[in-house]
Amino acid sequence: MHTAGTGRNLGRDHRGDRGVPDRRPRQLREHGPPPCGRFDDNHQALRPGRRPGSGVRGPARRQDQRTDHAEQGLRGRKRSRGNHRHRGEGVREAHRRTQLPGQRHPRASHGPGPVTLLRPFPGLVVDPDWADRVTTGPYDAYSPIQRAAIAAANIYSFLHVTRSQEDVAPELRDDVEGLLAGCSAAMQRLYDAGAYVAHDEPTLFLYRLTVDRPDGGGTGRHRQTGIMGLVPVTEEDDRRILRHEAVRPGRTDLLARHLTTVGASSSPVSLTYRATGELTAEVARLCAAEPVLESNSEGVDQTVWAVTGDDARRLVELLGDRALYVTDGHHRLAAAATARRRSTDPDGPLGWVQAVLYPDTEMLVLPFHRCVRDRAGRSATQLLEALSATGHLEDRSDAEDARPDAPGRVGLYLDGSWYSLTLAGATGDRAVDQLDVSRLQASVLTPVFGISDAGSDPGIGYIPDPLGLDVLVERCDADGRVGFVLHPTSVEELMAVADADERMPPKSSYFEPKPRSGVFVRRLDREHGHTPDEGTLR
């Protein structure tokens, strides 16, 4: 990967001055942090094999093993090498559209109770020989300068597919059609190069991510295993898939147009569900089989299994009618709903959206920290006096000493010193009122700093916890801001807010790890003969 020149080096040589350890993922250490407030909503692959007699499938068909689908751009496999290895045998049959339990009309079951619908799909996965060249971190993990440097150095980077207006010259930003045409051409370039392997049967993918804990908590490594498939596209008032964040219409519209122009999706909507022992045991059983693909890159170990037939049916049955909660991808889900509303075939492929479902017991939630500008120009002494009036304030020796180990307290950084601040109680009885981010907003940010709209006020910036507290220190020191270090919101709190049909405050949670872009591709034209830009938009 090529690092853009975006300012000072934030590697280990700058850490330790204020007792702050370097816990950032390697990707962030190499490329540096994005600008303050730019970590918004939006890691490598694998190796084929098959366990005889099961629905966990082996190598997928390549172009030299064509079926009646005969889609363009899926080339024959070369001998694998490096960290991305293949094993196993077998040639996948042409996929048959099998009806699985729970596979109903996308608009069915709009009653009061949530209904979980999970559907397999004929997906593509990146060829291990191509994984390092194609896949990238999530789009918003990079600043525009960093994305430009990575894309310029590698014509096959998936960042060419996910470009937005920020990634083109200012005079070209109004040409959305030209921008999306370039994204579509980049996707076709990857097909033509043979960068992807086709799975022709309706398939569910088990997707495991394993990382060092970026929060420094616990022992060993963090591991989470999700089930990837398609779920129905739902509207805001549909209780089958529960949201907890608001979305920006402009971003939603661009993503909707990207989906229908490129005719493919890669980054799944991330969902969580309340785990049960039986479903957890079934996933563990399937993961004992030979994986389809494996990878280790950028500090993330990824493993994928392809599940078909009776095993896929069993997973759908075990998921049953439990509610699903969005953890990451609110804009992608809203964009899918927009594309479906505009479609002349809303019950076709655009009636479904790519999603990965992780059990709540395996989710790792990290906080977004705050850096706040004092518009009143008060001295450090005056600010401490104002802050101490909101709650109990104590001196702390360093960043880790100030980091809260339980809800109800925040770390405070001001003028080179660290403190711990006890938050005032909740101002209401709603689930969202109980969150630390809400209590901080109500008792400190609004009355002390005059920040009433935390989503748009330029006086507040956000630092995802994986970037490290030294980033917060540098940003505060740069222009005299005050830093607030938060305790993470729990999955249970997020679910309670969604269950109550409320919305979380901006930047309430940061889920880690995140899937890399370009590992999976869902091609709409492999489902019901959909063709991008032909009869898709009204």
Description:
The structure is a single chain. The chain is α+β, with helices and mostly antiparallel strands and 538 residues long. It folds into two domains: 56-88 and 113-364 and 513-526, no CATH class; 366-510, Conserved hypothetical protein from pyrococcus furiosus pfu- 392566-001, domain 2 (2-Layer Sandwich). It contains 13 helices and 21 strands. The strands form four sheets. Strands 1, 4, 5, 6, 8, 9, 10, 11 and 12 form a nine-stranded mixed beta sheet that branches. The protein has a six-stranded antiparallel beta sheet with strand order 15-17-16-19-14-18, with helices on both faces. A four-stranded antiparallel beta sheet has the order 3-2-21-7. Strand 9 (293-297) and strand 10 form a beta hairpin. Helix 4 crosses helix 5 (249-262) and helix 6 (277-287) runs antiparallel to helix 7 (309-319). The model is unreliable at 1-54, 61-115 and 534-538 (pLDDT under 50).
